[in-house]
Amino acid sequence: MPAALALLLAHARRAALPLAAALLAPAAWAGFTVQPDGTVADTATGLVWDRCPLGLSTTADPCDTGAAAIYDWSSALAAVQTANTGSHLGHRGWRLPNKNELESLVKIDTQNPVIDTSAFPGTPFDRYFWSSTTFVPDPTLAWFVSFAYGHVDAGYKPDAYYVRLVRGGQPWAPFDALAIHYTITPSAGAGGALNPSTAQTVAEGNTQAFTVQPSAGHVLNAISGCGGSLDAGGSIYTTAPATGDCTVTASFTAVPPTLAGTPGPAVVDSAYSFTPTLGPANVLLPVAYTLASGVLPPGLALDPATGEIAGTPTAPGSYPLTLQATNGGGTAQLPLTMIVHGIAPTLAGTPGPAMVGSAYSFTPTLGPANVTQPVTFAVVGTLPPGLTLDTATGEVSGTPTAPGSYAFTLSATNSEGAATLGVAMVVLAGQSTPVPTLGEWGLMLLAALAAALGLRGLRRRQ
């Protein structure tokens, strides 16, 4: 039908439209409640309206600041999107009202304007207000409502009219036989979902919100379609006002692991455990652990399910390695250097006394039984003359040559530390051989023997 003819038929109906509005539109004006946030709740329909037309706002008195703005129909839909992006009056989910919703504001017992002015002050009536409903006989037109006399008509979409936003309430549009509807289809990839998950029928000019629901261990990767936008929290995607069939597509990605932690030192023959810190909190499970490089200290093993390195190390040393964690989202590596300490020595023992001229030996007691070898011994101070220290065994041995008391310190040192033992050693003097003495009879016998020997010598000379 030509646009001119459509308009002619529409104007021909204007005389009957106020009566139709009175008979068909709900008497919403009987139950308005003004809210502190600048909205008006309709107790009859459940709709929540912006108290002011777009462009007006409240400073001291309701709707006392600015001027009501006019928009062509496409710009009106864009203004709705802007209002939602900016959380107009602290809310999202605003839409351009459909014909029936807008017509429900008509107050049939007054005129100029035909609206409850206590609930909706400052409502202009020199121009119409746009609805979101397209005029089906000619889609270049859309329905509007006049608040001068309450009539409903259709105007060309490029024309400029006022806008009042609405949110909530009942799904009036599906009951409007003149409304054009579009299908908005959600499409979610593996690792998450969109809710609602089925195709939604949306009246032209209305928006549709989808809740983004990543599965455990996943996050939203990207979402697009239908001219929509994601809220600041990243959980609600709201389409632009519907102007055709479209699809909202979301993709999700698995959360890769992170690893952190520094192992403490281990000690030979002592139980040991180290578990790296796995992150983030929403990492995709399960995670498998392996060694990307290096070897574990002997006696320790890696749990591939938990990443724990545990056991009883048997050999000291420094062991560089790289721990790796892998899941469906990626791989993380953690370079580590594991230090295993050996056992430091201890010394004990008390030497017995030595004696000049007698062989002697003292070896201190080295401990513990699993002390790390090799151990090197040294002496601080002076050993008794004639004694020496075996630096490999710690034995002090030899034959002392001078009596006396000797204080010195023995030390034992290995790769893990040193131990000392203070020693006080006594060397006794040796016993001398007694010289025999003669008594008087011994001397007399010796003299007699000497005399006899002398006489014998004289006789030989004679």
Write the layout of secondary structure elements.
Layout: H1 3-12, H2 17-24, E1 32-34, E2 39-42, E3 47-50, E4 56-57, E5 65-66, H3 73-85, H4 99-103, E6 129-134, E7 141-145, E8 152-156, E9 166-168, E10 181-188, E11 192-195, E12 200-203, E13 209-214, E14 218-224, E15 229-230, E16 236-238, E17 246-254, E18 258-260, E19 266-267, E20 272-274, E21 277-279, E22 288-294, E23 300-302, E24 309-311, E25 317-327, E26 330-341, E27 346-348, E28 354-355, E29 360-362, E30 365-367, E31 376-381, E32 387-389, E33 396-398, E34 404-414, E35 417-428, H5 440-461
Parallel strand pairs: 10-17, 19-26, 28-35
Antiparallel strand pairs: 1-2, 2-3, 3-9, 4-5, 6-7, 7-8, 10-12, 11-13, 13-16, 14-17, 15-16, 18-21, 20-24, 22-25, 23-24, 25-26, 27-30, 29-33, 31-34, 32-33, 34-35
